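Supplementary Methods, section 5.1.

A reviewer requested that the exact input to the structure prediction be made available. We therefore reproduce it here, unchanged from the version used in the analyses.
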Amino acid sequence: MKTATVKELKTELSNCKPIELLQICLRLSKFKKENKELLTYLLFEASNEAQYIENVKIVLATQFSEVNTKSYYYIKKSVRKILRNCKKYIRYSQKKETEVDLLIYFCTELKKIRPSMVNSVQLHNIYKRQLKIIRNTVSQLHEDLQFDYNEELNELDL
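The structure derived from this sequence is encoded token-by-token as follows.
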């Protein structure tokens, strides 16, 4: 089966009646957990971005508290999983401010992990890569926001 392009999907969806769109969305939500999570964000959380960020931070904090710190191997695996979830939540929002907030929170929590991530090259590289992504994203924001976020970034530098 050949997958349709976004343009083809858009034109076909524009021809659908509202009840048909509802049925399509509900059917789509049954197939993948991510589809259901995205619909949840769009319907319930997109209107209050600050609350969404706080909820995601709570989820990330819970995940960081459950990290197995027996060895750097397990820490690295857990951190990558947390980062993957963080990026998923960022994709749902598609707002640069949300991306910066969540990645700064991720880096702050990663810095708190004991044993220290400085002793692991892989963890240190993950941390540095995220700082670089944050800097690139901050440079695209409004000047006032850039100043605030750059102050937070200066605190995160090793």
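DSSP finds eight helices and no strands in the chain. These observations are discussed further in the main text.
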